[in-house]
User: Fold this.
Amino acid sequence: MALTNDDRVEIRDLISRYNKAIDTGDADGYANTFAPDGQFIGIVGTFSGRDELRAFAAAYSTEEQYAEFASAQHWVTNVVADGDGSEATVFSHLQMVKPLPDGGRILLVGHYDDIVRKIDGQWLFAQRIVVSDA
Assistant:
């Protein structure tokens, strides 16, 4: 069965909840956007399972090594999801924008390659890969 319009809205909402959680330091909210065995592969490292994902999100908002990215906002557009009612691949463009008094600066231009799964009626990331397009 192809993705329904409701599926597409829920997948976009998942992406928005992910962005809000990582941008506001909500480590539990971030980890809960992933399947229990979900994996994030980014330019800052690879993290697997909710415990590692939660620890990463907590460190992201507090540790110096992530300071430049942690001060930025995730802006995601051009979401394209293909799949069925239980699993989908999702492509989206990503900009990380650092707010500054003069308006801001783009820190990263890239895209996400995601696999999402519907688990107990909820879409979650099974795998989220960040690709820098620079």
